[in-house]
Amino acid sequence: MPRFAYPCPGCRTTNSLHDAGCEYEGRDWHEIERVYTDVLSVLADGAVEESTLQSAIPDGPETWSGLHRAALELLRREGRLVETDAGLSLLSAADYREAVSEPTTEPVATIYREGSYPGAHDNSVFAMIAFYEMVGLSWAETRENVIEWLHQSGTWERGGFEESSPGELVDRKRHVYEAGYGWKEKATAAKRVIDAHR
Ligand SMILES: [Zn+2]
What we know:
Layout: H1 29-43, H2 50-56, H3 66-77, E1 81-84, E2 87-90, H4 93-100, H5 108-114, H6 121-134, H7 139-152, H8 155-158, H9 166-172, H10 174-179, H11 184-196
Antiparallel strand pairs: 1-2
Helix pairs in contact: 1-3, 5-11, 6-7, 6-11, 7-9
The structure holds zinc ion.
């Protein structure tokens, strides 16, 4: 199945399997990728007001569509863009990696902040890997972030792992990254267990 460089603005899939009820199901992928390149090509030149962005897209303001708006919203929601005094500004790759390394979206934020407990480990580690994959980090960056989280959150110290090191644990979950699974369901299950410890 082909994978796409940009996520669906409706359900975030990067292949042709949309979530049930996604309004962009069946939309031509070239069209979806095109709206991202339209928006990003303008932002690449520097910060702009949203109204300026709309009129600056390559084929002219009359081609600005609901799909453009949805793509822009997704970029904003996921922290790829920040609001500055000069308007919307694209984060550099390094700033973006830094920004997404600390998830602020629930339920992953709880897992990140509180760490995992025995009984939630499988779901927590799954969710952390799937989350970093979703926000676009490479495997190496994902691995590094998850290992650091295992240490800093106190998760590894709480025990309950068969593996002998955080690195071994994360490497054994690489299939989660490769498959691009969603993280919400597993994260929700993990958060329930973690919340019971708080
Ligand atoms: Zn979709």
